[in-house]
Amino acid sequence: MRILPQTMKPAAFIIALCVSAQLSAYENYPVINSNEVLSSKYLSSPYHRVESVDIENGFYRFDMESDFGRYTIYSKALFKKRVDEVIALGKAMNQFERENESLSEELRSELTVTGDSAVDILSSPFSTASKLAGQITDNLEGTFTGENPYVDSRKRYSYQEPKDPTTASHKRNIAFQTGLDLYSNYSRVQSFLNKLANERSAGRVSAGVGLGDPFSNASSVSQLDRSIQLTMKTKSLDELRYYHQSLLQQLRVRGTVADSFIEKQMLSPAQKTRMLVYLNEIKQVNRLGSLVDMATQADNEVMAAVFVRLSKALYRYYHNVESFSAFFVYKDYPAVITNSRKFVYFNYYDLLAWSENNENKFKQLAEHASQSGYSAWRLISLGDVTAMAGRNLQQLEYEQQTNFLDTSTKN
Predict the structure, then answer these.
(1) Handedness of CA 312, 317, 323, 327 (dihedral sign)
(2) Which domains does the chain have, with CATH numbers?
C-alpha cells in the first residue's frame, strides 16, 4: 500500500497538464509474474497450484489445477475465494480420512475429478470472452466478444436450502465451522455441505467431526465481518430476505430498486448481506442507494464481487480515513467528497495501466476537482497501478493509495 501526497495548488494545475502531456507515454499490460501478485499460500498448497497468471481488461486471469478440478478464474478476489474453498475442502477431507474413513471415501467420490472440469470452470464470466458486464455505467471501455456461457445458467445462481429445517440448520453450522460460503456457486462446496448436513441429520456424523474452529484466524477478521458470519449462521434463507428488506429500508432504498436488488440472482444471499451491512454502517451518507441500484446491473460474478468490495471500501474509508457526506459516480468512477473537501475516486480494477483512455479520463477527473476548488484529489485503488500509471497520476497531482482492502500489498 502506498500514499503519494498532493501538494500542487489548483492555480498551477494547467502547468502540470502540459508537463504530463510531454512526459506521458502509453503502455500495454506488463508480463505478470505470479510471485509478485500472490503470496505463497495462494501460489500453491497441498491441494492446488497456479499454472499461469495473465491480465485482461484490468482483471487478472488465473489458470489453476486442484484436487477438485481445473479452473480459469477472473479477478484476484474471486481467485482467492476459490483457493480458500479448495484448501478448506482439502483439509476437511484429510480430517475425515482420520476420523470417518467410509464418509471420506464417499465425499472423495463426489468431489474429486479427473482431467479438465468442463462443468465447473469457476466463475469465469469471460471464459468464452463475454462482455465485461455490470458496468458502473454504459461507457466502460473493457469489453469482450462472444457469449457468456453462464448468462442462461439459472440453476448456477439459484439459491436454495434443504427443505428439512434441521438439515438446513446443520448446513449453516457446517459452513460456519469450515469458513465456507453457504451460498457459494462452486458445486464442490455445495456437494460437501449437503452431504455432511444429511449425514448429521441421519445421526451418522457428530457435530464436530472433521471440522475446525471458525475463528481460528480471528485476529484477521474484523468485528463487523464476524457479525456477518454469525448472521449467515443463524438466519434461514427466508429470514435473510426479510433482513435484506429491513436493511434496504434503513438505507432509504425502496420501490423497484429494492425489489430488483432482492431478486438479483447474480448477487448471492451472502453478497447481499455483506454489501447491505457495510453500507448501513455509513447510512448517514447520501445517495448510497445509487450504488445499490448499480449493483442490480451486475451480470457476472466479477462485477458482483466488485460491488461488495466497493461497499466495504466505502465503509472502511469513512471509518478509518475520513468521513464524507455523499456518494456519486463521476466519469464512470465511484466517488465521494470528504469533509475536508477532498475529491476521492475509487478504482476497482486489479491493475491499472496507463493508456490513452486512462490518461484522458484522469486528466478530466483532476481538472474537474481543480476547477471546482477541492483541496485535493485522491485515487483509492482496490488493486494496484503500474509504475508508469503511478508516475503519471502523481504528475497530475493525485494522492494515491493502492490495495486499499489488503493488509499487505501481496497476499
Answers:
(1) negative
(2) 1-28+321-411 (3.40.1350), 34-201 (no CATH)
